[in-house]
Amino acid sequence: MKPTVLASVQEQIQAELESAYLYFALALQCKDRGLPGVAHWLTVQHNEEREHAMKFIEHAHARGQSVTLSDIRIKRLEWKTIGELFRGVLEHEQYITGRIHNMYELAQREGDYPILPLLQWFIGEQVEEEETVRTILDKIAMVGETGSSLYLLDQELGRRSE
Ligand code: OFO
């Protein structure tokens, strides 16, 4: 593997683990604020992010590379309403999408063909992730985010499966 591509994989493993940490922190905040369904949704998201990190780790290992972890940079997301929370989640996912696209461009430039199918998978995954969050934001815009609307939304998000 070219050192530049391996470095981008290392950085992305870190970014995925930082996403996991962010969503877990938000899940705990939601639990404290009486939103168990949103907390569940975010915990499932946290698990997915760890799986994303594992996909990159397994790819590096399959190609005989070793992976080391650096310190987690803690990203904070300030929110008062769940609309603010999910807008922050969408922004974060758009940032991750940009990173994946940059990795794809780099891998193509460097002629690292073996990683392209994995990155292609992530490109599709990011489309799905952004769509899921946009759908939640659309619902919030439609029904509001207080009182019984918030209660029902919390229930619905609590049904997310792993
Ligand atoms: Fe790993 O997709 Fe979200 O961050």
Structure commentary:
This protein has 162 residues and is mainly α. The protein has a single domain (3-157), classed as Ferritin, core subunit, four-helix bundle (Ferritin, Up-down Bundle). 77% of the residues lie in helices and 0% in strands. The protein has helices at 3-32, 36-62, 82-110, 116-143, 147-157. Helix 1 runs antiparallel to helix 2 (36-62) and helix 1 (3-32) runs antiparallel to helix 3 (82-110). The radius of gyration is 17 Å and the shape is elongated. It starts with a helix and ends in a 5-residue tail after the last helix. The relative contact order is 0.16. The model has no long low-confidence stretch (mean pLDDT 97). Bound molecules: hydroxy diiron-OXO moiety. Hydroxy diiron-OXO moiety is lined by residues 16, 19, 49, 52, 93, 96, 129. Hydroxy diiron-OXO moiety binds at residues 16, 19, 49, 52, 93, 96, 129.
Q: Summarize this, please?
A:
By secondary structure, this protein is an all-alpha fold. The chain contains five helices and no strands.
